[in-house]
Amino acid sequence: MTWTGSRALCALLRTFALALGWLLLVRALLILQSGVWPSLPGTLGGDLAGALLLTLFLQITHGLLRALLVVALGFALYVAGMHLTAHGTLFQLAFIGKGVDSTFITGSLLNIYLLTLPGYLLLAWGLHRLHRRWVPRTPVHWLPLAATGAAVILVYTLSFPSLTTPANNVVASTLAQTPGALFNPLGAAIGDQATAVTPQLRERTNFFHQQVSGRDLSPAPNVLLILIEGLSGGYLPSVSRYHDLTPVVSLEALETTLEDLGFRVYQNVLSMERQTDRGTFTLVCGRYPDLRRPSEKLRSVALELATPDCLPEKLQAQGYFTAYWQAAPIQYMNKDEFMPRAGYLDVTGAEAFSTEGGPEGWGPPDPVFFDDIAGRLRAVDSRHRPWFVTTLNVGTHHPFNIGTRGEQNLAEDIDTDDNEGLLPLPIVQPQTPRQNAMKVMAHSLGEFLRALEADGLLDNTMVVVTSDESGGFIRDDHETLPLNNNVGMLAIRPAPQDSLDYYAPDTALVTQLDIPITILDAAGYGSRAGGMIGASLLAMQKLPPRDIMLADTYTGMKYFLHSEGSLMACTELMTRCSTWQFASERIFGTLEETDEEPFLTLEERLALVEDATRLAAEDN
């Protein structure tokens, strides 16, 4: 080897060692910030791949390109830390457009986590300075370096089913996502718009099941549907014990309140997708959410490109007064236009709580929100019967604003001796803000429900408590097990003239799809379900086997589940799948990988997701 070649090799080795050491430091900081511990084998593989790519960038950049590299690294680490803390995954590069929305910026980006941005930028600048100081400049051989970078990205992409799970390296993950984000920005599957569900597939599977009891109930009950932002069933002690889960939040007080008030808490609840608009569409309209990267169904209805026959419209046709009240800005995700077209007569958001300066962040904290909703319900009950009201809080959404009253509740009414008290910097104990927000929500919701009961508002009211999506960290092994972000929440209290004896047992396998059709059935109008899918909890005594599609947009995974105990976990394009088995009455606690072949072919997977993505023909 010539002296020049030896010098170049030495520079590469030094750069690689520096890059790897820097990434290991970054890994430690991300763990400290988020509290998420990735699996060791994946972490080592991810950091080695990231060090190779970082070596490439450090060797070929200087001047303006080097400055851009430093800024890009600093911002990538900032977003990665915040996303890991809030969602348990690295960010999806394809969702970068969401970050420029003004509501999202003021709600989620302008918060205490901004304190980490200068630190991460300084850390990236430090890498640049150390490289310039310790590694001599050598001639750049573009071809071998480019080939190495391309090979790393290719192997990395093929090795990881999801590029955004915590074990991935933020540098390698971001670069590996780039080709897909550029060439396939919508995440459409191979053969998009060219596949169809055949009669044979429909006969062999049961993915679009509908089942109701069709019973009559008199008088028709009021219905209160309470959606809690990001609440996972795993946060309830009975659910986490049942499945042997390890949650970072334990809401024993909420579970006690629900039990005291006569609710049935379901143990096996599947949340269909991540992100509020996807869950909202399923809960309001009784259809599959968007299972692909773009979320278009709410927007299509808002723009009158589709007119699905949704639950509030069906109840309004039967004489119900319908209202949708949320804490966040109602214009976000087109809800100001979607909700009236779905059948809600009274629709409000954060503007209903606005002061002179407009809403603060995402909206009012939960103590303020639930107090206001209680007053509105009293007014509605005095003027309209029956009524159907849907509420959605925002205090349990990142960055977990609990407000002054929330702080007082924690200090005065909630036991904080178990590391769940207030801390000025969430970076010190990363999940403390989530824990505090959930505790404040549980306290506020409990007071809200007890006040309604004391006022007699629940005397003829069915109450359903669920979540728009399932968030949080509830597993020790959140790297390898599927459905990590699909552990849903459901608690039901029928109207007094009804009885839980008619409802499915608490161990029944329930999905978000089953909630709106259950409400319609419990109101006595199950025969008017139309194009809604799902199985009413009042009709599960003789429920045939059925199939269910789910997804996790933050990891890009898609799932095909057979209720008798089999599951396919597939990558975003559905070209690779692993198979799993489970006990139907204890799905999250019994998942085990098998060697069986997928029970659906690639063409069948594509066709089913395509069919679920389109709004039904009769809705257009």
Looking across the biggest beta sheet, what order are the strands in? Answer: 3-9-8-2-7-5-6
Q: What is the CA-based Rg, rounded?
A: 25 Å
Could you state the CATH homologous superfamily of the largest domain?
A: Alkaline Phosphatase, subunit A
pLDDT averaged over residues? 88
What is the number of domains?
2
Helix content bin: 40-55%
Give the distance, in angstroms, between the N- and C-terminal Cα atoms.
Answer: 70 Å
Can you describe this structure?
- It is built from 19 helices and 16 strands.
- The protein folds into two domains: 3-183, no CATH class; 207-538, Alkaline Phosphatase, subunit A, CATH 3.40.720.
- The strands form four sheets. The chain has a seven-stranded mixed sheet with strand order 3-9-8-2-7-5-6, with helices on both faces.
- The protein has 620 residues and is of the alpha/beta class.
- Helix 1 (3-34) packs antiparallel against helix 5 (116-134), helix 2 (40-60) crosses helix 7 (170-183) and helix 10 (252-260) runs parallel beside helix 17.
- The relative contact order is 0.14.
Short description:
The protein contains 19 helices and 16 strands.
